[in-house]
From TrEMBL:
Protein's UniProt name: Site-specific recombinase XerD
SUPFAM superfamilies named among the record's database cross-references: DNA breaking-rejoining enzymes
GO MF annotation: an example: DNA binding
InterPro entries found in the cross-reference section: Arm-DNA-bind_5, DNA_brk_join_enz, Integrase-like_cat_sf, Integrase_catalytic, Integrase_recombinase_N, SAM-like_dom, Tyrosine_recombinase_XerCD
Domain of life: Bacteria
Domain Tyr recombinase: 211-404
Alphabetical GO biological process terms: DNA integration; DNA recombination
Tagged with keyword Zinc: no
Length: 410
């Protein structure tokens, strides 16, 4: 079913029908032939002769899974042989030694170690992301994926699998970067060698996708802030969105963790949780506490205003990090649901909590604010990050303006 030939070495997946089990099944093996010598390597799978013959075209879920496992073992043997040929010396002794070393660990175990480390470090968001990525990888290729089988071909097949599952290229790219991170850890640990590394120029290049980022203009923002359907819940989430916009585009996770002690000298000062772990420079962000923000706090905030109390009534400080994450996610989801109602009424597509931050940056840019100021207020560590962040919005503006060139009013 799977075959490969290189430099006088032939690799084939075969049904070893020399001896059957008590159930009349035969082991599937990877046969390597070199200088008329044959060696067999187990896949751990067994089939009857009829099942083996029908395997290539079978649509049964169980048979497809077996086929994937066979290909994983085949790709492992193939990648090791290619590496040995590249290094200039193939022998069955070297092949056996390398295969035994490759079998000492798997991509699955690498993911599990990474996930546990994130959990121990209370990095809840990243922990949940790696769990989802690992679940996707396991659904694609099983529970025993040798690092040596994570080749360029394997990654391309995974990309196609993700596409068929209906995933956006943004998600595909993120999951592939998670795989790369785990493989990088294995490389550092000596589990794989440099010539087995599948990522980079001329190898597998991780796809990138660009999600639609909505940046509103001042007229649209005014319409949102003025909108009311007579529903108190709609007004509360509308105001939380407006607060996020005014507070330097603060994300909801950071906003819900604000305490009254964060208000100092007429400003709200805070650190972004997203970058405080990863940046050596711990940069505090300060946003002027405007009259509009004060009005929102007065209307929806906790009372009385005690220094150790959260500004908004969603957290109490006694939650575990996982409960905290769940609450923030729930509030964000509820807000987006209301924003969708507002957006539909005002004919603004894609309105979400993210658009508050996008709009904050773009309104300042279009109003002539210094990019260094925008960078500092967003909490970016360098101007390049801010320039890249704003670039996609400016492209939207260019596309919109280009259409005006042929708006003949016919």
């Amino acid at each position: 079913m799977f075959n490969y030939t290189n430099s006088g070495i032939t690799i084939s997946s075969v049904l070893d029908n020399r001896r059957a089990t008590n159930d009349n099944l035969y082991p599937i093996k990877i046969r390597v032939t070199f200088q008329r010598i044959r060696k067999y390597y187990a896949t751990g799978k067994y089939l009857s002769i009829n099942e083996w013959e029908s395997l290539p075209d079978s649509k049964k879920k169980e048979m497809i899974s077996i086929k994937v496992d066979i290909q994983n073992t085949f790709d492992t043997v193939k990648s090791v042989i290619k590496a040995l040929l590249y290094e200039g010396g193939f022998s069955f002794e070297a092949l056996n030694s390398r295969l035994n070393k490759s079998a000492t660990d798997t991509l699955n175990n690498g993911f599990k170690l990474k996930i546990q480390a994130l959990k121990d470090n209370d990095q809840v968001g990243t922990y949940l992301f790696y769990q989802n990525a690992y679940r996707s990888v396991e659904n694609f290729s099983g529970e025993n994926i040798l690092f040596a089988s994570v080749t360029v071909d394997w990654l391309k097949r995974y990309e196609k699998f993700m596409e068929k599952e209906g995933n956006a290229y943004t998600t595909i790219g993120m999951y592939c970067r998670a795989i790369r991170c785990v493989v990088n850890d294995a490389k550092k640990a000596g589990v794989i060698k440099e010539n087995q590394y599948p990522f980079g120029s001329g190898k597998f290049e991780i796809p990138t996708g660009q999600g639609r980022k909505l940046a509103l203009n001042l007229q649209q923002i005014k319409a949102i802030v003025s909108y009311s359907d007579g529903n108190e819940t709609t007004e509360r989430y509308r105001d939380l969105w407006f607060f996020s916009y005014l507070c330097n585009g603060i994300n909801f996770a950071d906003m819900l963790k604000l305490k009254y002690s964060n208000i100092r000298n007429g400003e709200i000062c805070f650190m972004r949780a997203k970058t405080v772990r990863t940046s050596k420079l711990k940069k505090e962000i300060c946003a002027v506490l405007t009259s509009e923000m004060n009005a929102i706090i007065k209307k929806w905030g906790n009372k009385p205003r005690k220094q150790d109390k959260y500004i908004f009534p969603y957290l109490n400080g006694k939650e575990t990090v996982f409960t905290e994450k769940r609450i923030v996610k729930d509030v964000t989801k509820r807000c987006n649901k209301r924003l969708k109602v507002i957006g539909k009424a005002l004919k603004i597509e894609g309105l979400s909590t993210y658009s508050a931050r996008h709009s904050y940056a773009t309104v300042l840019k279009r109003s002539g604010a210094n990019i260094a100021y925008i960078s500092e207020s967003l909490g970016h560590n360098d101007l390049k990050t801010t320039e890249n962040y704003l670039a996609c919005f400016e492209k939207e503006e260019r596309v919109k303006n280009a259409s005006l060139l042929t708006n003949f009013g016919e």
